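My current task is to audit a protein record that another person submitted. Alongside the sequence sits a line of tokens, each denoting a local backbone shape. Please read both lines and tell me whether the tokens look consistent with the sequence. Do not assume that whoever made the record got everything right. Thanks in advance; the entry in question is below.
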Amino acid sequence: MWSLDFVFKVLMDFLRSHQVFYNQQEDINKGILAKIVIERDRCKGCSFCVDACPKNLITIEEELNIQGYLPATIKDNNKCTGCALCAEVCPDVAIEVYK
């Protein structure tokens, strides 16, 4: 049986290798930025999104949410490129990325 870490690594490698369908640099040059919305009370703080973010824009909060978990939060939404890797790996479907 495969470990969760192995499956996560394979998934992340796959997602990163298929970013050819989204040209981040072209959007950045046009001044188009994305916005991440993390549903704080739905997040269980697994930190998959923290590991997935290529810009290191997501961190784990220090205050518990209503479920008793430490949820993820975005540090600087203005630097988000909209790659949506964070939303792709979120098992709680707590992240939405708007462009």
Remarks:
- The beta strands are 35-38, 58-60, 72-74, 95-98.
- The chain has a mean pLDDT of 83.
